[in-house]
Amino acid sequence: MLTAELAPLPVETLRQDFPILNRIVRGKPLVYLDNAATTQKPQQVIDAISRYYAETNSNVHRGVHYLSEQATIQYEGARRRVANFLNAGSEREVIFTRGTTEAINLVAASFGRKFLREGDEVILTEMEHHSNIVPWQIACDASGAKLRVAPINDRGEVMMDQLRALLNPRTKMVAAVHLSNALGTINPVKEIVELAHSVGARVLLDGAQAVSHLPVDVRDLDADFYVFSGHKIFGPTGIGVLYGKAELLESMPPYQGGGDMIRSVSFQRTIYNDIPYKFEAGTPHIAGAIGLAAALDYVENVGLERIAAWEHELLEYGTGLLQEIPGLRLIGTAHQKASVLSFVLESAHPHDIGTILDNDGVAIRTGHHCAEPVMHRFGIPATARASVAFYNTRQELDALAQAIHNVNRLFR
What we know:
Elements: H1 11-15, E1 24-25, E2 28-29, E3 31-32, H2 43-56, H3 66-86, E4 94-97, H4 100-115, E5 121-125, H5 134-143, E6 146-150, H6 160-166, E7 171-177, H7 189-198, E8 202-206, H8 218-221, E9 225-229, E10 240-244, H9 246-251, E11 262-265, E12 270-272, H10 286-302, H11 304-323, E13 328-330, E14 340-345, H12 350-359, E15 362-363, E16 365-367, H13 372-378, E17 383-387, H14 394-411
Parallel strand pairs: 3-15, 5-6, 5-7, 7-8, 8-9
Antiparallel strand pairs: 1-2, 4-10, 9-10, 11-12, 13-14, 14-17, 16-17
Helix pairs in contact: 2-10, 3-10, 4-5, 11-14, 12-14
């Protein structure tokens, strides 16, 4: 609920910053409820990207001319912006990647090569996205380490007693999602970090969904690694972030080889660059980093606490509406939850639901959401998923509910 300390969010005013929200889709006003897949972009982000290409487009770091200097200033300024957003100890701990998926692959490959050996163990939760499963399977296959899984209960919450039981001196890594894309569950990540550290394990937190809904302080969490994608927080696609503690990043080998990650190269020996550049081979996504910085500016100007409060109201309102629909079952009812309304309907397959809702201008996501183990846990092939952002309204959730009623009428 909104508290007395938080000013109400001017949703209708903020919606005007997002050009796409004014679109007409299939003859009806767009109701965009697919924010867990990707968020829409405010004009401020679009302008920042366009301004870079129009005014300072150049490669970074290696040029001595004016445009290169200006591009480098903006690119490294974006790194500082991310460090401040996460409350990292240093901008050296911020590595730009193509997204959450590449960031996890980087850690799994590099950390795995350095620290995983036969007999070691990696623990995941049952609610992980494929991007936080497959890279660790690859790392375990390469090293001989064993993958262990902490189960979830019927509400979609990690069973913490089971997680504690899995932890032991052989555990080298615990990789857990902060906020589940399939269930909306907010995991007790600070507690998970403390438990993992108590047996000497490191922790990677997948923050792809969390960063646009919750304040994140990596030093308070004491996370060893934290990863997220720009396009999930109103920024451009193709840019992401790996935060890692400096001492860990310094000890890990490079993920890729090429320009900018070197100090010097000969056919006899290569000397690698310092962090973060050691992990940024080749020309980076300069415009993406600049756009991400603009998105973080935008989010902080709106206020993450106000965003979280308004989205909580939307989630409660939407939950109430959906619970009144005959034959609808919510998947993911955790006590600590945000942004996601996943459901199945007795009368129709999720793909049919999505298609019919699209005809009403309502955009949702259907399928397994790259979280097949979650679907297996609940004995279903897929869900329909509506996911909110701060620019959504109660009226849009009314439209969602009405469209689902239409599905029931068609299929019953």
